[in-house]
Amino acid sequence: MSEPTTPPASEASEPLVTVGTITAGATAVIATTIAFGVPLSTDQRTALLGLVAVFAPLVVAMIGRGRVYSPATVARLLGRR
Fold this sequence. Notes:
This protein is mostly helical. It has helices at residues 10-13, 18-35, 42-65, 71-79. Helix 2 runs antiparallel to helix 3.
């Protein structure tokens, strides 16, 4: 008989979903700062949004890599019990 398992938390089972969250959050911060009067040109806004689009997936990949495991690793870990 196998041991009952608890379902993992959503951030553990879908850690890479946060790419959209980080991108949307950073975009909202940029839009809010512009709305409150930070003087940014159109080119500066485009550059900032481009940086967010590039670096958000990289940051999430680094975070997510520590939370996901290959099937071979899981099988090896379960086989050692």
